[in-house]
Amino acid sequence: MNTKVILALLLCFLLVASNEMQVAEAKVCQRRSKTWSGPCINTGNCSRQCKQQEDARFGACHRSGFGFACFCYFKC
C-alpha cells in the first residue's frame, strides 16, 4: 500500500475515535444542597457533605443572592 493511503486511513481512524470519546463524557448537573444550612465558606466541607449525605459526585460554594451557598453536582 502507498504510504499516503495508510496515513489518510490512520487520520480518518483518529478523527472517528476522538468523536466517539466526546460522546462518552458524562454530563454533570448542579442543584443547591438540600442538607446544608447557613453560608458556605469552605468548599471542602461542602463537597464532603454533598458526597456523604446526598450521594453527589462533589460540591462547591457558589454565590447565591447576597451570600454563598453549597451546590452539589450529580451525574445527569
TrEMBL record:
Domain of life: Eukaryota
Keyword Amino-acid biosynthesis: no
UniProt signal peptide: 1-18
Annotated Gene Ontology cellular component terms: extracellular region
Keywords, ordered alphabetically: Disulfide bond, Secreted, Signal
Subcellular location: Secreted
Single Gene Ontology BP annotation: defense response
Annotated InterPro entries: Defensin_plant (IPR008176), Knottins (IPR003614), Scorpion_toxin-like_sf (IPR036574)
SUPFAM superfamilies assigned to the protein according to its UniProt record, in alphabetical order: Scorpion toxin-like
Main location: secreted
One Pfam family in the UniProt entry: Gamma-thionin
PROSITE patterns linked to this entry: GAMMA_THIONIN
Signal listed as a keyword: yes
Knottins-like domain mapped to chain residues: 28-76
Name of the molecule in the record: Knottins-like domain-containing protein
